[in-house]
Design brief:
With about 625 residues, the protein is α+β, with helices and mostly antiparallel strands. Among the domains are: about 60 residues; about 70 residues, no CATH class; about 160 residues, Jelly Rolls (Sandwich), CATH 2.60.120. About 50% of the residues lie in helices and about 20% in strands. It is built from 16 helices and 21 strands. Strands 1-2-3-4-5-6 form a six-stranded antiparallel sheet, with no helix packed on it. Strands 9-8-11-19-14-15 form a six-stranded antiparallel sheet, with no helix packed on it. A four-stranded antiparallel sheet has the order 7-21-12-16, with no helix packed on it. β5 and β6 form a beta hairpin. The two termini are about 55 Å apart.
């Protein structure tokens, strides 16, 4: 799973986030007040304009502070009834059609069918829910104003802030109900679609015998189902599992007529797929590199990829990637360290492509330097490789002798352990990132994790509704729709602009290659790749300086716009990882902050419009 930035703890995040929110909010208030004063000054003069702006600000704050929950709920019910009159439930029929015919277009033989089905259903749910609430929010209030139906409301003892908040809550309730129904249906569809079983015929299984003639186990293959089959390896007692294919495996149990250790199995029971719909709780470490000579390095080798998320280590050399894990407790990993890893492969020549690229993993004491003998594996693209580091490890000394050591007594030091990855084949490369290696610290519930992901869609729906209602207080329906979509589109580039500004200031082109707007234009004209550094001429330095001044206001402005992609957690769910509660809390607080800002802005805009006059 891609995790370009570590998720901070909520306690460490909330302080700086609150300061930024107060700074951004104060800046916007000052800018809006200055613009309002300029407009009023052209009409009434500077002194009268200042008085009008001051009185308008006090009146708007008083309007927001004097809201009534009873009136808000009455207006919310009115918004719900209006949504039902607009036949909003038709979207459920459209979603049902999508679910019915999705199986025709989704390929169950893909590399990871679980990720495919999850991504499709979450995207469809998010799109439909947000689209429905967007249309309701941007066209409802302008339609009432155009038909003068709003006058029957504002002439009663109802405040402008209550009208805005009532519509936000009403449309949000409609979206919440739709999300609950679609989410439940989508969950059932996903579980049913990925669940499958294989059969094992007796003729597809061969018995392995030891030198003394006793049964050492069985090996064979499963039936071909859903576009794949598995290799199986059973122990003498008839228990075992299949290999990992398409991101999952199956537990297998042999059924014998008599004694399991002496009788040949007469049937095999294959379990449900394991690994497709999971909720892993990872314990992640920090990553550093060794170059091809075994010397410490700040990063790995670049293979020319524009996306620098993963660094590469060269095979057949001393190059290595080293992860340091903290907080290793014996009570939590009593049976050893369940290491899981995602390794990408870059080939300089094809070789024997069906055999894959072999590598090794070792564990080392970070203080004494004592390290275990290597565990060998073959990297598989787009799958998670798993190695269980046992309690008892073999260690080879300098003189060639071998002895047994205990993992927690001799290797783990003060709760820390190092894991060393090397690629063994010359002229081939392993690509890794810090989040690609982790220790499986536990398993969560997939159903609960799915609900967490739907919570991210709910946050997005609330934001879309609030932005739409805010713009509808002073714009016509089509214009409000265009303005809302523009805000959401700009917000999608928020993280990119932030990384681009950081790259420009620090000079680290790996953060966001390509440079600022002028440098990007220069590269397009000269056809220079974004992965190549420009010569440090006077012209280039001038371009970078101008870009820095241009990106500063862009960075400030981009931080104000909400990013729906940042609120989404579908990558965690599709990757099989538990969604951290810290991330949900941070997203929830960010959503709450935006909702408050859009509510206040909408209330002021509607009050300034004087719709009852």
């Amino acid at each position: 799973m891609v995790l370009e930035e570590e998720i901070p703890k909520f306690s460490a995040w909330i302080g700086p986030a609150l300061l930024w929110y107060l700074f951004a909010g104060s800046l916007i208030v000052v800018i809006v007040a200055a613009l309002a004063w300029l407009v009023q000054s052209t009409l009434y003069g500077p002194l009268v304009a200042g008085d009008r702006v001051y009185r308008g600000l006090l009146a708007g704050l008083g309007d927001c502070a004097g809201i009534s929950l009873r009136r808000i709920w009455a207006l919310s019910r009115l918004a719900i009834q209006e949504s039902l009159r607009r036949n909003v439930l038709v979207v459920l029929g459209l979603f049902a059609l999508i679910v019915l015919f999705a199986g025709w277009f989704l390929d169950p033989t893909s590399v990871n069918p679980g990720k495919l089905y999850l991504g499709f259903m979450l995207t469809a749910t998010s799109l439909l829910v947000c689209l429905v609430t967007l249309v309701l929010s941007v066209f409802s209030l302008p339609a009432d104003i155009r038909s003068k139906a709003i006058q029957t409301v504002v002439t009663k003892p109802v405040r402008s802030a209550e009208i805005v908040l009532g519509r936000m809550i009403g449309f949000s309730i409609v979206g919440t109900v739709l999300l609950a129904l679609m989410g439940t249906t989508g969950w059932a569809f996903i579980v049913r679609s990925v669940n499958h079983r294989h059969e094992i015929a007796a003729e597809d299984v061969l018995e392995n015998r030891a030198d003394d003639g006793t049964t050492a186990g069985w090996e064979g293959r499963t039936s071909f189902d859903r576009g794949h089959r598995h290799r199986i390896d059973l122990k003498p007692d008839g228990s075992g599992r299949t290999d990992s294919t398409q991101g999952h495996r199956h537990d297998v149990r042999a059924v014998t007529a008599g004694d399991a250790t002496t009788s040949r199995p007469i049937a095999y029971a294959v379990g449900s797929p394991v690994g497709l719909l999971e909720s892993r709780k990872p314990l992640r470490g920090t990553l550093r590199f060794l170059d091809r000579g075994g010397r410490p390095s700040t990063k790995g080798i670049s293979v020319g990829a524009e996306w620098s998320y993963r660094q590469y280590i060269e095979g057949g050399t001393l190059a290595a990637a080293i992860w340091t894990f903290d907080g290793i407790a014996e009570r939590e990993f009593a049976n050893g360290l369940p290491l899981e890893m995602i390794v990408r492969v870059f080939r300089t020549h094809k070789g024997e492509i069906e055999k894959g690229i072999t590598g090794s993993v070792r564990v080392r004491n970070p203080i004494s330097g004592l390290q275990s003998d290597p565990f060998y594996f073959t990297a598989k693209e787009f799958t998670i490789d798993a190695i269980n580091i046992p309690r008892t490890l073999a260690v080879t000394s300098v003189d060639g002798g071998t002895r047994q050591v205990d993992l927690f007594t001799d290797i783990v030091a003060a709760g820390r352990v190092e894991v060393i990855l090397q690629c063994l084949q010359p002229a081939q490369y392993y690509g890794i990132a810090q989040a690609d290696f982790y220790l499986r610290a536990g398993n969560g519930s997939f159903a609960i994790n799915y609900a967490k992901s739907c919570l991210g869609i709910w946050f997005s729906m609330l934001l879309v509704t609030a932005i739409g209602v805010m713009f509808s207080t002073f714009l016509a329906g089509p214009v409000a729709l265009l303005a809302t979509l523009s805000i959401l589109l700009i917000g999608q580039f928020r993280e990119f602009i932030q990384r681009l500004f950081e790259s420009q200031v620090t000079g680290d082109a790996t953060i966001a290659p390509g440079g600022g707007p002028i440098e990007s234009l220069y590269r397009i004209v000269t056809q220079t790749s974004i992965t190549l550094d420009l010569d440090p001429t006077v012209a280039v330095q001038s371009i970078k300086t101008i870009d820095t001044f241009l990106l500063a206001p862009m960075r400030l402005g981009a931080g104000i716009f909400p990013s729906l992609s940042a609120l989404g957690t579908a990558d965690f769910l599709a990757g099989g990882f538990d969604i951290p509660l810290d991330l949900l809390a941070e997203n929830g607080m960010e959503t709450l902050g935006y909702l408050l800002a859009f509510f206040v802005a909408g209330a002021f805009c509607l009050k300034a419009r004087e719709v009852a006059s």
